[in-house]
Amino acid sequence: MLGSIRKFSTSIYSKVLLVIIIIPFVFWGMGSSLSGGNKNIIVIIDKDKYYLKDFATYANRYIAPDQTVSSNLIEELFSNFIGEKLIEKEIDYFNIKLSDKSLSELIKIQKDFKRDNKFSRVEYEKFLIKNNISAALFESNLSKNEKKKQLFDLIGTGITTSDLLINSEYNKINQKRNIELINLNNIFKQDVNFSEEEIKTFYQSNETRFNQNYKTINYLELTTKKLSGADEYNDLFFKRLDEIDNLISEGQDLKYLIEKFNLGIFKSFKLNELGKDENYNKIEYFSDSFLNKIFTIKEFEPTVLIENENKYFIFELIKNENIKKSINDVQVRKDIIKELKKDLKKKLIAEIVSKTNSNNFVKKDFDKLAKDKNVKIQNIKIENLNDHKVLDKEVVTEIYGFPEKKIIALYDINFDNNFLVYVNKVENVVIDKNSEEYNRYLNLAKFKASSRLFNTYDNYIKNKYNIDINYKALDEAKNYFIY
Fold first, then answer.
1. Are 244 and 261 in contact (CB under 8 A)?
2. How far apart (Å, rounded) are the C-alpha atoms in residues 241 and 402?
């Protein structure tokens, strides 16, 4: 068994890209070809062994000198590395070759290397220097890419599309739809009264959400006037700023710094993680992102020097406390009623969805709901999938996924926008072969047919090669690049 292999939660296999082909690997091919003595082998594809140095050379080509390298990045690069090797095997299998003469001709037709519409050796050399790449490496990459293109052309050779497929793609986007719509928010916003018992029950069942952590913070802005007596930043300002930073590192507090540098009077505020005070007022002086940074100040390091938008501040955590809001708090009651209304929305929508899925909510029920709740039914004509004049893109896209005479409930994750829709009529359309759009939909139909073909090819590749991965070696690669 592969003692140095562990399951990778499909992350490597699901990310191996073969340019336009994605091989959706699952964890297969885990044999026993690797052992502890082969720690420098990172992967075996069939009988071919690839070493740590092979992957390191590959990865170095794609990692910028100043780039932060993460474990996920190494996994992604390793996935691509495997994909490259699979492509090379397929190119060899189909005996796809590119002669030196053909490569030379390919270089000469590149637009970047032309001057006065003719190949220029000078332009070619300039390109290589500008991109810091050798001629040998560039020509090797160009050759590989051309062979990949020929491989994909070979796989997709002979793809034809019928008028039926072209019209199907055209109709999906351009068919017209007449719908009837009930805005469920017009029902929800009608007066709904919740009893004190309901409010109390919700409060008691969700007490923890009304416990909020508040931090009391003292702060002082370090202006140029305070530190150097000047109106602009100068060397003295930054010298004293460094001195303050060092004193904070030594454990000195805000009071000591104010006395030593005669910094004046500090200010205070109390905030929760949302950047609001106890009265739910937003603290406006600082941005949300900066308030988040302030809220992370810890008790074991209460005094910190922070820069924000070219301004410098000393912050000091004075008190960290959990405050439980009373059920009689005005904002608490507003929040409870809001949540109770959301629960009511969920319940009504869930009932409608359940009935529509089992065909127990039909057009007469749709009309009856509007009549009983005294809400208007809107008649809307949607011209095509891209018609967003009345309804948002997401809503229109959902509507176009259902057939004629179907009732559907549409809602967002927070139940802010909620609709009940009846698809009254679908007007199918056919494209004119002489229209300017014909080629566009012809290409779209070809692309869809190609995608289906390549998905089949993915499955073929998946079962063709046996892949063993040495995860101990991969961990070594991570350690090398990350640390």
1. yes
2. 64
CA 211/CA 324 separation, integer angstroms? 4
pLDDT of residue 38: 67
Pick the CATH number of 1-162+433-483 from 3.40.50.12780, 1.10.4030.10, 3.40.50.300, 3.40.50.2300: 1.10.4030.10
Task: State the Cα–Cα distance between residues 142 and 144, nearest whole angstrom.
Answer: 5
Q: Which residues of 437-471 are buried (b: 16+ CB within 10 A; e: fewer)?
A: eeeebbebbbeebbeeebeebbeebbeebebbbbb
Pairing status of strand 176-183 against strand 418-427: antiparallel
From CA 371, how far away is CA 278, in angstroms rounded? 45
What's the rounded mean pLDDT across residues 100-120?
Answer: 87
Condensed to tens digits (0 to 9), the pLDDT of residues 197-242 reads 888 888 888 888 888 888 888 988 888 888 888 888 888 888 888 9
Q: At residue 428, does pLDDT exceed 90?
A: yes
Helical pair 71-93 and 135-156, crossing angle rounded to 10 deg? 70
Q: Are 73 and 34 spatial neighbours (Cβ–Cβ below 8 Å)?
A: no
Q: Do 295 and 271 contact (CB within 8 A), yes or no?
A: yes
Q: Alpha carbon 406 to chain centroid distance?
A: 33
What is the residue-wise DSSP string for 208-269? Answer: GGGEEEEEEEEEEE--HHHHHSSSS--HHHHHHHHHHHHHHHTT--HHHHHHHHT----EEE
d(CA 83, CA 120): 35
The DSSP string of 326-375 is PTT-HHHHHHHHHHHHHHHHHHHHHHHHHHHHTT-S-HHHHHHHHHHTT-
The answer to whether 69 touches 482, Cβ cutoff 8 Å, is yes
Q: How far is CA 429 from CA 174, 385, 405, in A?
A: 7, 13, 18
Alpha carbon separation from 246 to 123, 299, 335 (Å, rounded): 55, 19, 45
Structure tokens at 283: 């603290």
Distance CA 285, CA 271 (A): 12
Residue 84, token pair as written in the block: 């490259």
